[in-house]
Every structure is written in structure tokens, then in C-alpha cells.
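so the lab meeting is tmrw and i was supposed to have these ready like two days ago... anyway. pasting both below. for each one the top line is the aa sequence and the line under it is the C-alpha cells. i havent really looked at them closely yet so no promises
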Amino acid sequence: MQHAKWVLAAAALTAAATATAQDQDASGGLEEITVTAQRREQSLQDVPIAITAFTADQLEQRQVFNTYDLVRNIPNLTGNSNVGVGTSSSLYIRGIGNGESIATFDLPVGTYVDDVYVARQNHNNFSLFDVERIEVLRGPQGTLFGRNTTGGAINVVMKKPGEELKGFVEAGIGRFGLWTARTSIDLPISDRLLTKFSAYRIKDDGYALQVSTGNYLNDRDASGLRADIRFLPVDGVTIDFIGEYVDDRNTNFLNVENSDGNRIVNNKITQGSLVGVITGAKAALPLGNEAATRAATLIVTSDLDNDITLTAVTGFRDTDHDFLVDSGGELPRATNSRGFTPLINMGDHEQFSQEIKLNGQSGRLNWTTGLYYMNEDNVTDFANGNSTASTGAFVVAADRTMKNGLETYAVYGQGDFKLNDAFTVTAGIRYTEETKDFSIERNAGATGAALSTAAIAAAGIPLTLNEQVWTPRVALQYDVSNDVMFFVSATRGFKSGGWPARATANNAFIPFAPETVWSYEFGTRADLFDNRLRLNATAFYSMTDDIQIPARIDVNGLQISTTTNPADLENYGIEIDATWVPIDGLNITAGLGMQNAKYVSISQRVLDQAAVCRANPTGSFQGAPACNANFVDQFGQIAEPVRAPDYTISMNASYEFTSGAITWIPSFGFNTSDEYAIGTTGSPASTNGTWSGKQTYINAGVSLRFENVPGLTAAIDCRNCADKAYPMSALGPFQFLDRPGSWGARIKYRF
């Protein structure tokens, strides 16, 4: 049956045409999309990489308003908001991801904004405003992009200032008291000085009623400002200075559906209830989660001659991340105002990066080479505790301040050489060297674990980590014609190691090792039937060594749970992106991802733990329960990979027609996926609350364009139209639900 499923999937791919919707060109066919997946401008159809790209109009039609919304539009991409923290998206591509937002963990799926890497997951779920396009690259990006990633990359390209005065204003309302406002204006000062200014505001009242207080939680209050000044001092030189400020309050408190179908929060935690128990200013934080980011980017591009372009990208980002949330709330221990297991955090995360890149062409050779530097400093003052079951008394587990930093250098190069008119060979390599440092101290006057950097060092745990890694890529492309090509490739990616910073014992900060991946792909890119059908398909096989995931390790004869490298991850599958324009005005698109992920080379310690569990379900393994812990479930079975559903299917359709003075564009879309593990390790038991169940989301809407009023449009739509309460993540026995169904209406005027 397993082989039959894959045969049917391959047939469906060929017949059903899955992909990203593209705008129609003047002849009704599919418009070409330009991407920079190889750090130079190319047609999407010429890039030998598994990539899905969306233009601004396509993002709006799919109701993709922030980076988290991408998870239901990309084959083999899944994700969730981190537990309680709505500004942080935990993204997984082909089963590779990271569910931890603490600053000692790096991202296997990297996010880039205008070629600047976003180092911290604390604020990677940002609203998309004035975007030119988004490119989602699946598979390791170990050669050309700023930081090595094992899972993939999300490349956000913002619109640049235009040469004419133009812009838009937009306002909207929606369910849960939602109101939105967005605006952008291109304001050219002269032929040599162009400017663009953009802003947005999003606010709602929240959708989850805290029973004890009568207040609504899980509200959203976000605003952003962006300015881009483009200076053209001489022909061939472009200088862009971009400044941005984004403040986002976005929380996901544990909530359940009551008998009326409404969301409620049973946890009684309140603001100020931890004052006198937790130290410092963080004790008085308001209930919820807030991330504020200030960013500045300088991009200088210079044409050195007709064939060589120099680009220098300087980036600075500073994120303040504060939150008071609770990771539980449905047990009797949640009866007091201090909550069940509150997490409280004040973090400051600064990064600076500098990249110098050369692009050139010489005869049959296109090449890219560059140097990359990044420095990162993080300070996190955080605490956690829990209420005891019998008395409700609150116990502080740890109250500490952590400092960690990174300094990394890289040099890279890649060339595409046309052997002849049909064959192109690609070869590239990147050398990366990085150094990390770490320290942690219990806060003055705090209770809980007596953590100190000196005690950690005395336990023999290193406080610095250094890595040197080579990550190559090779590919062969065969152009059957101008409209059809095939490619094969092999790519290595790397994600650095770190420390399990939430440990509460000095001897438990044992570093986890880097994870590395080799990925092999075979794909095709095809524009067929007079450019009416675009079919992009990729088959892949990947092997990730030393995947970073929680498991049991031995510390002085006692088993503890921590992030370590207990196994390798093997995965193979297929992905298809396509769109079909059967008649003018009608776009039918879909996406299919299938994968077969499994852990291999499992550590002997995990196998021993599983054997003890199977022999005695109530027994212990080196001082801790053998069953229902990390990689081992209550039956002694080994875990399934996290967030790697057997299939994901998405479809979108829109039809544009004019009636009288109004052009109507109704649209419909859905996404469905097989059940998958949503816990931290992927327990194999799908009945224990750590699995998603099969999920189907439905979106629908209609846009109006008023022909008698040029520039005026309106739209009304619904998201999760069936109002399903699907679990998106799990922590212990608790399931965190995705947002309920909502509707919205917007009006926009372009000038």
C-alpha cells in the first residue's frame, strides 16, 4: 500500500498541476516571475532549486498577511506559533525545524528581509506590508545565503522606491473587533533621490475569554513604520538606506472550546501576581507577549563594468522581547493568580551583519562570490516556576540572566557554466567559521536553582563553541527547450550547535552538537500548452546527521531530558508547484507535498530506555521513568519525526469577470494535511495529545474593482471559514489551538 500511495501521488502530480498562482500576461498566459534564489536575478523557471514564489497580489489573494500564513501554502512546509508567543513562528521544511525560541538555538529555516538574515526566532512572524514578493526555498541553503540553514530559507523582498508619485491607503474591519490600516507612498524628490514611506496598524480585542477575570486574551496590537531612501549619485550606482520599526503584541494563551464553541482560558494568572516572587522589572510585565524591532539596512550596488556588479549589504537589528505567559492551565494546579507553569522573559537581541558580494558573467560562465560577517549579542532575563498540585503554593524553578553571543565569518562562491545550449553545470562552496559564547547567573535575591557560569565551567562544560564547516553544492541542468528543463543537485547544509539554556542544574548545560544535512534533488520546471500550464516538480532525498531534538541523556548516573543529538533524520518525498489558466480570467492552482521521514541511527541510550519500558511500563531507567518520555512513548515505541506529515495538499482558484462597472474576483482555497506529531520530540502515540489529527482549512473571499473609480478596490473574505479548533502545538498534556475562524472586509485606494 505504501508503494501504491507514491505511485498514485506521482500520477496525480502529473495530471492535477499543483503550484503557485501567477498573474496572467497580456495574452492570457502565465507571467514570468523574477527571483533571486541564487543571489542574482533569474526567471523562476530557470532556477534548479525547489522554490515557491509569490507576488504581492498572490499573497493578498491567498490571505497571507504574515509569515506564519505561509505554512498553508507551501508543499512540505508546516509550522506553528511558539507556545504562548505569537510573534515567534516555528517553521519546519521537510521535517527539519526548531520549536525553541531561546537565543542559544539557531534557525534551521532562516528568514531574510532584503538580504539581511533575521537571527532570532523571537520576532520572525511579522506582518507583510508593501512586499514585492516572497521566495520560499526548500532544502538546505548552505552556499549562498548569509547563515547556513538545514531546512530552507524564506526570502522577503520589499518594494523599492519608484520614480513616480504613487501609493495606496487601505482600511479594514473584521471579527473580534479587528481593525486595520495600511498605507505606502512613493515620493520622488528628484531623478537622483527617491523615497518610499510605509506604515501599518493592526488591532483586535482578542478571542479567548479568561474566565476568572472576564478579560479577553490572545489579542493583537501591532504597528510598523518603514522608510526607504534611494540615492542614485551617478549612473550605475544605487544606494538604499532602509529604516524600520515594528512593535507587535501577539499572544497565544492556552485555551479550549466551551460548550457554546467559544474559546476560554481557565488559567487565572494575572499581571503583577509574580511581584515579590520573581526578581526585577520582569515581575511586573503585563500579561501577554510583545516584540519590538528596530532595523537599519544599507545596500550599495555598483556596476564595476558591463559584466561585474558589486553589492554591499550592511544590516543592524535590535529586538526587545518581553512576555508573561503560561504553558499550562487546565489542571487543578492552575487555581491561583500565579498560574500553573508561568514563563516570564525580558530579552534584548542585537545583531550586525556585513556582506560584500560580486556577481559577474564571462562568456558561458555566470558567477557569484562574496564575504560574510555577522556578530550577535543576546541578553535574556527569564524565570519560570509552577504551582504545586496539593497546596497551590508557587515554587520558582529558576530566575536567571543569560548572555550569549556569536561571531561568524564566511567566504563563498558559485558558478554556472553552460557546457552547450542544453546543459549547464553549477558548482559552489562555502567556508564558515563561527565562535559562540555563553554565560548564565542566578539573579540577585532570586530563589530557585543556584545557577552560575563558574559552576557550569567546574562541571567540565565548555562556555565557548567553535566550528569550521565546508558546505558545497553541485547541480546539472538540462534545457529540453525554452519552456522545459530538468535538473539534479546535491547540497550540504549546516546548523550550529548551542546550549540547552532552560536547564535548571549547572551540570545540565551540556552543549548539543551541530546538525548537518546532505540533500539530493531531481526536478523539472515546465511552462506548457502555450504558457497556460506551469508545472514545477521536485523529488528529494535528504539525510540529516545529529538532528537537534530533546531526548534523555546521562548526567552522573541520572537521566535528564534536554536538547541533544539522539538520532539522524532520513527523509524522501516529492513536491509539486503549478498553476493552470484554462480560460482567460480563471486561475486554478494547487500544491502537493509528500514525504516519508523517519529517525535512523538512534542512540543506544534511547534504545535501552525503550527496552526497559517495554519490559516494565512502570519501571525506571537510570533514576527516571522509562516510558512516555521524549523519544519513548508509554508502549516503548520510538518517536516519529516532528511536523512531517505524510502529505500536504493546497488548492486555490480565482476567477475574474466584469459585470457593468465592477470587476469581480471571487476566490476559494483549502489546505489539508495528514496527522503529524506536534510535541517537542514526536511521540509515536497519536492518541496522547501530541498529534495534530487530520486538518483541513478553508479560505474564501471576493475582491471588487470599480472601473468608474480607477484605483478603488474592496474585498471581503473569511479565514478558517469552518471555524475549526485545530491543535498546532503541544507541551506536556496541553494542546495549543490555532486561531479560530475569522472574517474581514477591506477597502483600498491606489493613487
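ok protien two:
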Amino acid sequence: MNAKEAYLSKPWLAHYPETAAPTMEIPNVSIPDLFDQVARKFGSKTAVIFYGKKISYRELKELSDRFATALDSLGVKKGDRIALYLLNCPQYVIAYMGALKLGAVVTPVSPVYTSQEVRHQLSDSGAKTVVCQDILYDNVARTGVHLDNVIITGIDEYLPRLKKLFAKGVLSKAYGGMEIPDDDLIAGDGLLKMSDLLKKHPPEPPRVDIDPVNDLAALPYTGGTTGLPKAAMLTHYNIVACQAESLALWSHLFEDGNETIIAFLPLFHIYGQVVIMLTGLAHGYTLVLFTTPDMDDILNAIERYSASGFYGVPTLYEYLKEYDKTDRVNWKKLKIIVCGADTLHETTVDDWTRRTGSRIVEGYGMTETASVSHTNPVGRPKKGSFGVPIPNVTAAIISVDGDEFLPVGEVGEMILSGPNIMQGYWQRPDDNRETMLDLEGMRWMRTGDLVSMDEEGYFHFFDRKRDLIKYKGYSVFAKHVEEVLYNHPQVKAAGVVGVPNAKVGQLIKAYVVLQAEARGQISEEELIAYCKEKLAHYKVPQIIEFRGELPKTDVGKVSRRELREEGEEA
């Protein structure tokens, strides 16, 4: 079997559970139509629990219908972009679904963005309507972007009475220096209140014809790890496909209308947006929604609501495996515990299993894949692998600088093909030419990730292509060096980057956070000596810098981009 056939034969299908078909028929339906079908079927069931406040599917449908009617009255038309600059709250779900019912396109904005970052996304997407958390309005005002409609909403509008004052205090602390606009400012700036719009307008939105295959649903922006963030164009079909496919290898564990999912991951991020919010609503699940990731509240909610699904990121599991209150939860009772958004270190997996007796199921996805392309089958996970492609998705490994298929086991760039793959980047023709390619009569997307596939069809992550370090002609994977550092008992966190050097190309620099008791006790020389015992000579860091903490992305990844920029400046 040649290299191409090794991938196109899909060896991973042998490890699918009996309940999962190798291909799935994707319904030709829009996201809001799918939601309405579920809302009619499970009308009385709880869709969202927000700090004790319960909203049924029937109520959620009515609220989204009211908001769609309100947007229509404001002149929003099919194809218009609507920015959601919101924290996790019921209004996020209402605004998202209401906008899609008009055929508008949502562009979620990170609530930790500065005014400059918000300006870029508003300008680049062409959004003229913003649904904004009241405490974030200052950043919108400072962008200077002309907007037709600014709709503000408060976190307290769907909170039980006793929680309202507490929530305002928490947000004021988290967003210090930013003030909630008062009535005078609201009137003076011509702002609209979402609560007023929902009261004023009936749940009677106009019927808009949506072509699920071709009409855009969302413009989520990538993290901007190389240059300014850019938007992935996702159609209704892309997202509906991902909702259906991503659960396929676990579907035997779940029952529509009878599951409870803990939803604390940010909904602006593709992971929380599609895997948790939209997939949950497409299956009639109850979402226990949190604005801030308070671990005590989350652990209490898992037990109180008998949660069946928990979705996290590696840094969260690294934290929880040491947290003194983690044992409040009987983790073995959960049907699924999932990790995504970054590489899960094997030491974290081992420590978690020893602590809780449960297993973390690792997956892989990107903004450009509508969130998911791979996951480990629950009954046959492989440690150190992010799993196998989900149904309808084909993955292959090609040469980094070309388009030749590489033999099984070799590391190269992973490419993906499937119905959940984006249409391309919004207004980025040059990026699209670099990213999208046609091979063997199929449309593929370059992921920019260095990966290998083993003989069983499981895929293993090595590094981002941009994070590959070139030292004296050798290729060094930053992740490999980080894994060795993480295995040191006194290392809490590490980030490895290449620093430009005229003589060797790039020096290997490690930024390290030590455990509290080890700070001041371990030297750079000792850690370098430790690495020399575990790594080939050319992989050993030449520079180690101790830090109290490392910069993180919005979902808790160590931000190598920021570390790389610091190293280059130094």
C-alpha cells in the first residue's frame, strides 16, 4: 500500500464503536430550524441553568424569536454581520439564535479584547450591530467604529435576586476601571437595551430562506498567532455537520433530551460555542452555564445537577488534579470527560486518573473545522494521541513544503477534508490560496500542525509548524522539550520557543514556572543538566528563564507567540 492509500483507506474505522457509522448523512437544515425542531420536541425541558435560574426550551425559543423580530425592526437583513461581545450568559444564546433566524452572520468577540482588538474585528467583519455586555461598552465606544445599533445587556438580567449584587461585584473586580453605562449615557449615546427589545417585540420574526450549504452562519476569528486574527467562514451546514459528527464516537453514551452539560468554557470560542452550546441545544441537553470559571461553583454544580458531560482544557485538568476540593465529585459517574483546545500532557493524564479513577478523552479541532475533526473512541482511547478522524472526515499527512503524501509514522503537515471544513478565510484570498488545496479530486485544508499517523490510524501531535525550532540545521519540536520539562517534579509550567541567532539559526529558550516550594532552590544550570539526561544534545535549551507565570491565550494555552516576541525583543 502506497502512502496515499494508507490514509484514503481510513484505517481508523476499525476502531470505531459498533454504534458509529463511517459516514453520516448530514441534514440539510439551518441551525435555527434545527433548534426550533428540538424546542418543539423538548419544550418543557430545561435548556439553560444560570446560577439557579432555569430557562426551558420553550422559553428560549420565544426569547430568540422576540430578539429576531427586534433585529428585523432595526433594519438587520440576511447576510449582515452581528458582533456578540458578551460574557457567558443566557443572552448569548438568545442573541446568537435570534441573529441566525434572520439569516444574519454572528461574529463572536472575546470579552478580554482591548478596544484596539475589538476595532479590528468590527472593521474587518463589517459588523454594524453589536450586542454588548454593559460593563464592556467602554471598549466599544473607544473603537471609533461607526455602528448602526449597539444593544447592551446586563449579567444580572437573568440572575436570581440574591445573586444580582454579588455578580456586579465580581464583574467590577474582573473588569476594573470599566463602568456600566447609566441611563443618561444610554440615552446620550443612543444605546438600546436588550431587555427593552425583548419586552417590546412579539415572538413573530419574518421567515427568511436560508441555504444551509452556502449561507454563512458564523465568522469566528482565529487567535491571531500569526499576525492579526482572521475569520473562518462557517456555513450552517459546516456547523450542523460538526454537531452531528463530533458526537458519533460517543453517541451510545447519550440520550437526546436527557443529559446535563457543564458549560463554563467561553462561548465566544469555537470549542464552547459549537461543542457545548450548539451541540447541546441540538440534542435537547441542559446547559449549566457559568460566567466565570469558579471551581467551587462548578464542582458543586456537577454534583447538584448530576452532570453527565464535562469539557475542559489541559490547564484546567492540571489545576484540578492538585486542587483540594476535586474529590467532592465522583468523576467516575460522568459519562464523558473531554479535553481539547491544546495538547494534553501525559503526566496530567496519569495524575488525573490516579486522583479520580476516571479517564480524560482527548480530541482535536480548530476554528477552521467548526471545532472538531478528531477524537478518541471512548472504549479505545490511546494515550498520547488526540484520536481518530470523526465520521465523514479524512485526514492525511503531507510534506511540510509540498503536497506529497508521507508514509505512515512520518511527521509532516496534517491536511483535512470533510463537510465541517470552513469555506475559507473572510476576505483573505492570499491566505486561502496557501491554506486550501486540491489533491486526488478532494478539497483539503492545511492545518499548520505537524502530526503523524500510526499504523492503527491514530494521530499524534508534535507541534505547530510555526513553532518548529531550527538549531544548527536540526529540527526541534518545542512540544517535545516542554514534555521533558513537565516531567520534572518541580516544574509547574513551561513554554519553549526559538530565539533568532546569527550563528546557529535559533537558540532554544525555555520559560519555566517552578512549583512554589522549589522557587529559588533550583538553578538554570540544574534544569539544563536534567534536560541533557533526557534529550539529544541539539534539543537541550541553551537559555532558561524562570517566571512567576506564563502568558496565556483566551482558553488557557501557554502563548508561545508572546514568549517568542519577548525572546526576539530581548
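from a quick look at the 2nd one: Residues 81 and 318 are 38 Å apart (CA to CA). The first strand starts at residue 46 and ends at 50. will dig more after coffe
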